[in-house]
Amino acid sequence: MFDCILPVEELLIQLEPKIKRELFQTTPQNREDLEQHIKLKIVEKTEKINSITAPTLEEFLESCIKPKHVESN
Questions:
Q1: pLDDT above 80: residue 71
Q2: Gap between the terminal Cα atoms of the chain
Q3: Which of 58, 53, 44, 60 is nearest to 2 (CA)?
Q4: What gap in Å lies between CA 23 and CA 35, rounded to an integer?
Q5: d(Cα 19, Cα 38) in Å, to the nearest integer?
Q6: 39 partner at 20 to 30 Å CA-CA among 11, 14, 19, 54?
Q7: What average pLDDT is seen over the chain?
Q8: Whole-angstrom Cα distance, residue 34 to residue 38?
Q9: What is the sign of the dihedral through the CA atoms of 23, 26, 28 and 33?
Q10: How far apart (Å, rounded) are the C-alpha atoms in residues 28 and 35?
């Protein structure tokens, strides 16, 4: 597995400047709520992505090479 998965906290720190810049597109009274909502969505999606497991190359190739079940009439 790749070691490029960032902890959620690190990802939020890296995205903080971008989130802050984009918040200026909304009214000041909505910024705090929107910021929380954006960060919550980032956490949810990061956890979902991190939970996905892909087969190794060997597993994938084995699944492609296995003979398909042939139904007899």
A1: no
A2: 43
A3: 53
A4: 7
A5: 8
A6: 54
A7: 86
A8: 6
A9: negative
A10: 11
Instruction: Give the 3-state DSSP-derived string for 6-69, with helices as H, strands as E and coil as C.
Output: CCHHHHHHHHHHHHHHHHCCCCHHHHHHHHHHHHHHHHHHHHHHHHCCCCCHHHHHHHHHCCCC
- The structure tokens listed for 59 are 């597993």
Q: Quick one: tokens of 21?
A: 């810049």
Q: Is the pLDDT at 72 greater than 60, yes or no? A: no
Q: Residue 16's closest CA among 38, 48, 1?
A: 38
Q: Are 14 and 6 in contact (CB under 8 A)?
A: yes
Distance between CA atoms of residues 38 and 63, nearest Å: 39
pLDDT confidence tier of residue 54, bands split at 50, 70 and 90:
confident
Question: Would you give the distance in Å from CA 37 to the centre of its chain?
Answer: 16
